[in-house]
Structures are given as structure tokens and as C-alpha cells.
Amino acid sequence: MARRIQAALVCGGQWHDFDYARLQLLTELAAYEQVHTRVCADYDCLDTLASVNPLITYTCNVVPSDEQCAALAAFLAGGGRWLALHATNAAIVPAPPTADHLFSTPALPGELAEMLGSRFLGHPPIAPYTVAPSTSDHPFTAGIGSFAVTDELYISELHPPLQVLAHTNFVGESTGFAEGHTTVDEPRPVLYMKQHGAGAVCYFTLGHCRGRFDLADLGVEDLGEVDRGSWNVPEYRTILRRCLRWAVTGQLEPTP
Which residues form the ThuA-like domain (predicted)? Predict the structure, then answer.
């Protein structure tokens, strides 16, 4: 018998076009008539997390409190499915005026990095790069070959074990950040799963988007253009749709 599914979408933060991302995600969720989605700008509204499944987050510099981290841990332990998108793992603060960088990325509170499987350290300037499936037999990447994106390439501190499903390679500087500078050419996870008790996190780092006025707080009043990152890339849309299907239904089955 069909029943209503209560989902929660946390979408907000800094330096991105959250209105666009929110609209895209809600449009995808609208394909599931049984889903009722509670929309929040941060974690403060998740007082009913015990009655929610799935949780979907698209944030940047939105950090839960220690109490909220404990609630997230309980959510996962109880079988929760958390689809974490783009900069969910990012805490970013301005560096002191005397520093040789613009931003620092402090430790995440509680067990958040362990839960998510990663902590954002930095990213190089936005430029094209290639994403390659790490496996051909997972439903999220089945039938998808390597594809090009122009997106933020995240260098993260990893907290294994992770089931890496797609990756890229990068060696170089995360310009403007205190950390995230690499000298070793090794795969950088772009899409992965991490199990937590009866629950799981799916993390997908792609999905940058920015409007003309989203850097006003950094002194850039008008970028003069709109950046949709990977949102116009068919492979990204296909993988995102499959991840959302898992989040909603809990099923790992190949879909178009």
C-alpha cells in the first residue's frame, strides 16, 4: 500500500544560487507523488528528524550544532538515507588580514566529517575537468562513461571506508584556501556511498551554481553572468536523478 514519504531538504548558505538549486531539486522530487518535502535553509528546522526519511542537503558553509550532529547520527543509525550534495561538507571562514590566503576551512563539529565521509579543504579555480565512473556495475553509474564538467573540484579530507563510485584526478593549488593543495596525482572522489549502521550517506560533490549577485558579500557586486556548473550536463542530471530515487525509495536499481 502506498504511503506518504516525509522528506527534508536543507538548501542554503553562501556564494551559490540556492534558489536555482532548490527549484531543481524540488522539481525532481515532484516526480514522486507520495513525497512531502519540508524545506529549510539550515539545520535549525530539523526538530522532527526522527520522522523524516530521506534527508537531502545542498548547502555551503551551513554547519549543524553539536546537538544537531547528534540528531543526524541518530537518524543514520536508525536507517536514515542522507543525500549530501555539493558543499554540504564545507565550513569556511575568512583568514586573518596578515595570512597569505583568503579562507580557512576549520574542523567540522562532532562526528559530522565522519558521518559525511569527508571534510572540505579547498578547491582550485573553476575550470573544466573529467569525471570517470570508478565502477561500471553500480546502479548510479551504470551505462555512463567519462564525462566533462565545469564545476568546483573539491579537495577533501577523507574519512573511510567509502565506496567510491565516480572520481576525478587533480594535482595543484586550491587558490585562496589554507588547505587543499595537492602534489600527488590520485583519484579524488566525486560520488561515493558510506554506510552508517542501518543507514547510509550518498555524497555527490558536483552541482555548483551561481547567480550574478551571489558574491556580493565578497565585494563582487555583479559577476556579469550566471553559472550553472554541471546542471546542464546530461550525465550529472542522470546520476542525480538516480541518487534521488535511492534517497526516496531506498532502492538501488538501474534507472534511465
Answer: 16-211
